[in-house]
Amino acid sequence: MLSKKIASALNEQIEMEGYASNYYLAAASWCDSKSLQGCASFLLRHADEERMHMMKLFSYINDAGGHAVVPAFKQPPEKFKSLLELFEDIFKHELKVTDAINNLVELCLKEKDYATNHFLQWYVEEQHEEEKLFRTILDKIKLLEGEGPRGIYWIDRELASMKPAS
Ligand code: FEO
């Protein structure tokens, strides 16, 4: 049975994963508006991944005797200065998600909630993969930065076939 404290912390994580899904959706829309269809399709796939992360939490909370709450989401940005800025923002957001997951794990250990700690290990691994994925994308963008539009074209092609972290 989930304690109120753990249920509330997991509900906060629902908000974070749902916001991430909306953020990826907004980023996909911006890319589409710039005819960067490869980036847009990658980001759309990732928006679905984040929704799945949110839904896993949603089910877990209710299965463990808590009450999953559907939160209000703040609006994600509509515009980005560049593809580099967009992926830098995403990377920063993923680092925040990693911190939040680590804090949740810490709380579970403190409260001796080993079942939820076990459940959260999937997210620990997932964040490791996501950080690696977005660090790689950022490295590639920086590598091709001096190439101007041709560099953007190659990044767009690369992301078209790139898979989300899981
Ligand atoms: Fe579900 Fe990208 O954090």
Helix-strand blueprint:
Layout: H1 4-33, H2 37-63, H3 83-110, H4 114-144, H5 149-161
Helix pairs in contact: 1-2, 1-3, 2-5, 3-4, 4-5
Describe this structure in words.
The protein is mostly helical. The protein has one domain (4-161): Ferritin. The protein contains 5 helices and no strands. The chain has helices at 4-33, 37-63, 83-110, 114-144, 149-161. Helix 2 (37-63) packs across helix 5 (149-161), helix 3 runs antiparallel to helix 4 (114-144) and helix 4 (114-144) runs antiparallel to helix 5 (149-161). The relative contact order is 0.16.
Distance between the termini: 29 Å
- Rg, Å, rounded: 17 Å
Query: What is the count of helical runs?
Result: 5
Calculate the mean pLDDT score and round it.
Answer: 95
Helix content: over 70%
Question: What top-tier CATH class fits best?
Answer: Mainly Alpha
CATH superfamily: Ferritin, core subunit, four-helix bundle
Tally of DSSP β-strands: 0
Q: Which structural class do the helices and strands define?
A: mainly alpha
